[in-house]
Amino acid sequence: MTLPPAPSPKPRLLVVDDQPVNIQILFSIFSADYEVFMATSGEQALQVCAERQPDLVLLDVMMPGMDGHEVCRRLKSNPASQDIAVIFVTAQNDPAQESSGLELGAVDFISKPVNAAVVRARVGAHLLLRQALAQVRDLNSTLEARVQQRTLELETALQELHESQVHLAMSEAKATLSMLVASVAHELSSPIGNGLMASGTVVAQARDLQQLVDSGTLKRSDLSGFLTMLAGASDLTQQNLQRAHELIGNFRQVAADQASEQRRTFDLRATVSEIVHSLTPSLRRFTHTVVQIIPDGIVLNSQPGSLGQVVINLINNAYLHAFEGRTHGVVTLSATLQGERVVLVVEDNGLGIAPEVLAKMFQPFFSTKIGRGGTGLGMTIVHKLVTKTLGGEVRVQSTLGVGTRFEIELPLTLPPAT
Ligand SMILES: Nc1ncnc2c1ncn2[C@@H]1O[C@H](COP(=O)(O)OP(=O)(O)OP(=O)(O)O)[C@@H](O)[C@H]1O
Ligand SMILES: [Mg+2]
After folding, report:
1. How many CB atoms lie within 10 A of CB 394?
2. Can you give the pTM of this predicted structure?
3. Ligand 2: distance of its center to the CA of 377 in Å?
4. Which residues pair with 39 in a beta bridge?
């Protein structure tokens, strides 16, 4: 039979018995693998325990003076020694005695005469158990520290992530700003240049006319030529100033902050109808139609001006992009109440949007018509107004050749600005 290996480093064993011959037997069993101490009385046992802190005591029960039970009771009632395992070694085979010993805190009983293999196996097993318990206790006590350490590491990592996000956002904001400045300069340069050229022509020709007047050589045809030029140049100046004005309006919208408009209570159907009506002059040259099927009685407390900007941008986009090369496009505006929210749908039956365009559509300055009247700010404005100003969400679905559907989901009551 193989005996269980003694746990290392050498465990400390106290053998207590008033009969030296019994101590001798146990000593011979354990001395090779254990550090063995001995005591021949209860008092001596307590003293050795206090001085040597054994891992385990093999304790005789019947001893003159302080018996084994008393030794055990005292060991267990002292915090310094209560963790020492106690095994009673007893000649009696009395179950009542055994259970009262166990109640005192002993872990086991071994009967005399001892069997070397049994006593070794039991002692080894109890020491292994104690070692395992000590490890669990150790783990428990370090676990909390480890959790704290990990939490700290995670918090630090989170903080770093947050900082780099802020950093990224700032550099993105800077990049957007310089792009905005470059774009403003670029977009404004042509209408302003055109306007300057037209007004320069007026100034030069007025000077020539003045000379003719001064020299008394002004002919009727000179005057009428001048007036024709003046009308054309003024028209050109006005158109270009108008374009510059619109562009500045767009840029201002991009930079507009949330509190720029007063909120009020309004009826969705009536407001959308007004918005579409206000677009009529510019849409009149097309043969497309805007169909409104918004039910009565959807009342919002929000910012109608911002909602108007959104609808105008979406209708303009449909006319400009979706119906390019087409003659009878239809834009449908509809709305449904969903609890405390309303979903406004702006749908066209136009060309649809390719996935690669759809992916970039909300980015500032993304336009498939750069240099042909598009600045690529329309959808950026829509997104910003819907999500930031109106506290809602915008979704888009599109199928090439079928059309595009925008869903603007808005809270009926705009939450207060935070
Ligand atoms: N309804 C639509 N159908 C097809 N394509 C669309 C539609 N709406 C938007 N797009 C595409 O999305 C792009 C981005 O739209 P956005 O309104 O941001 O810019 P834009 O109309 O080109 O310029 P801007 O509105 O600033 O004058 C457009 O250039 C167009 O390619
Ligand atoms: Mg647009």
Report:
1. 22
2. 0.51
3. 7
4. 16
Amino acid at 342: V
DSSP letter for each residue of 59-127? EES--SSS-HHHHHHHHHHSTTTTTSEEEEEES---HHHHHHHHHTT--EEEESSPPHHHHHHHHHHHH
Task: Measure Cα distances from 280 to 247, 311, 312, 349, 374 in Å.
Answer: 20, 13, 11, 20, 20
Distance CA 361, CA 64 (A): 98
Distance, in Å, from the CA atom of 120 to the CA atom of 111, rounded to the nearest integer, reads 13
- Cβ of residue 41 lying under 6 Å from some atom of ligand 1: no
pLDDT, tens digit (0-9, with 9 covering 90-100), for 361-379: 998 888 998 777 788 888 9
131 lines ligand 1 (CB under 6 A): no
- Of residues 107, 52, 104, the one with CA closest to residue 85: 107
Whether the CB of 376 sits within 6 Å of ligand 1: yes
Using one digit for the tens of pLDDT, what is the confidence trace for 165-200? 777 766 666 666 666 677 677 778 888 888 888 889
Question: How far is 60 from 97, CA to CA, in rounded Å?
Answer: 13
CB burial readout 264-285, b (16+ within 10 A) else e:
eebebbebbeebbeebeeebee
Nearest CA to 80 among 101, 57, 53, 61? Answer: 53
Q: What is the model's pLDDT at position 259?
A: 46
Q: Which two tokens stand for residue 287?
A: 């043969």
Nearest CA to ligand 1 atom 19: 376
